[in-house]
Amino acid sequence: MQITRSLFDDVMVPNYAPAKFIPVKGKGSRVWDQEGREYIDFAGGIAVTCLGHCHPALVGALKDQADKIWHLSNVLTNEPALALAKVLVDNTFADKVYFANSGAESNEAALKLARRYAKDKYGEQKDQIIAFKQGFHGRTFFTVTVGGQPAYSDGFGPKPAAIAHAEFNNIESLKALISDKTCAVMVEPMQGEGGVLPATPEFLKAVRELCDANNALLIFDEVQTGVGRTGKLYGYMQYDVVPDILTTAKALGGGFPIGAMLTTDEIAKHLVPGTHGSTYGGNPLACAVALAAVNTVNTPEVLDGVMAKAQLFRDGLAKINEKYNVFADVRGQGLLIGAELTADYAGKARDFMLAAADEGLMALVAGANIVRFAPSLVIPDADIEAGLARFEQAVAKMVKG
Ligand SMILES: Cc1ncc(COP(=O)(O)O)c(C=O)c1O
To answer: Whole-structure pTM over 0.90, yes or no?
Structure first.
C-alpha cells in the first residue's frame, strides 16, 4: 500500500490540517520526510521532544523495557512507575504522584482532586474553579472549559459548571472573582498556546496569597513549561512560589505519551481507592522512557545549556529583526520562545510557519500573531544557527511578498 499525504484526507477525521510532507525519520534536531528532504526541528513536537529525536538514553530505556514487561494496569504496580515517582518527588515540592497519559488527563485529575479536597474539607458549596483568559489546559470537556478560549469549548452542549476566568497578569481581576467558594485557581506559569506569555513574579506571588487567604488550592499547569523547558526542571522554580498541585506531560516522556499530577500528602490523601483512575496511567514503557528523560534533563549541563541556547536564539532573532523589522516583541523563558509579529503582519503567523517549512525549518505558532519555537533542549548550537539562517530566508520571502 502506498502511504501518501492524500491518504490523510481519505481516512482521517478532519480535525487537523497537517503539513503537506510526512516525516519518516528523526535524529537529534534533524528530521527527514518521505522524499528524503531534511528539516531542522525548532518545533519539538510542540515542546515534547526535549532531547530531540531518538536520543540514545530514551531509545535504550524503551528497548530495555520492551524486553521486560509492557503493561500491567493499576491492579498491579510496576518498577519503572515507582522509580519515576521517586525521582519526581525527590526533585520537586511534591510528596505524591498520579500518572496519566496526557496533559489534559493530568489536569482532569488535578481539577477533580481540587473539587474533592474542598468538598471533603469545607463542604459542597466550595466548588468554584478560577482560571485565566487565553489559558490552555487540554481538550477534555472539563479542561477545555477551564481553558480561557470559549471558542474551543463552545458547541458541545452544556459545559461543566462553576468555572470563572480572570485576566492573566492582572491580580485585581482575580481579586474580583475569588471568594470562600473558590476551591482552586489553575494557571500556567507561562501561557504557551495563549501567546508565550510569562507570568510576572509579582502576579504569581499575589495569586498564591489570594489562594491562601481563601483556602483555595493553587494548581500550576506545567504541561508545556515542565521538564527543563524554562531552564529549571519546573517553571515554578524560576519564581519564589510553590503550588499545591502541579501537572506535567509533553516533555516528561520526551515523545512517549505520559502525564503526571504532583501534589502533597495532605491533598493526595483525598483520592482514595475508587475515586479516580486510568487503565494506562503509569504504564511501564512510558515510565521507563520518562525516567530516562527526567534523569537526562535534570543535570546542570542540560539546564544551563538551555539558557545559553536560548540566548543564541534571542541574538539570532534580534539580528533578523534588525534587517526585516517583522517582530514587535520576542519573549518567553528558556527554550519556549515567541516572536510576535508587527501590525503589518497581523494574523500571518501561520504563513511564516509554512514559509519556514518550505525552507526546511519546522516551527510553530501560538495564535494568529506569534511564531513559536520549542526545540530540543540539547539542540546543537550549529543547528540553531543553520535553522535561524533558514528562518531568515523564510522571513525575507514573506517581506518581499
Ligand atoms: C499548558 C498546557 N496544558 C495542557 C495541554 C494539553 O496537553 P495534551 O495535549 O497532552 O492533552 C497543553 C497542550 O498544548 C498545554 O500547553
So the answer is: yes
Atom 7 of ligand 1: nearest residue by CA position = 103
Please tell me the distance between residue 84's alpha carbon and the centre of ligand 1 in angstroms.
21
Query: 355-381 pLDDT, tens per residue?
Result: 999 999 999 999 999 999 999 999 999
Pairing mode, strands 336-341 and 370-373: antiparallel
Instruction: For residues 129-157, give the mean pLDDT.
Output: 98
Q: How confident is the model at residue 110 (pLDDT cuts 50, 70, 90)?
A: very high
Phi, psi of 23 (to 5 degrees): -65, 140
Give catalytic residues, as residue numbers.
136, 221, 250
Ligand 1 contact, 103 CB (< 6 A) = yes
C-beta 270 within 6 A of ligand 1? no
Instruction: Report the first-to-last Cα separation within the chain, whole angstroms.
Output: 40
The Cβ of residue 169 has, within 10 Å, a number of other Cβ atoms equal to 17
CB 57 within 8 A of CB 69: no
Exposure on the CB side of residue 134, measured as CA atoms within 13 A: 18
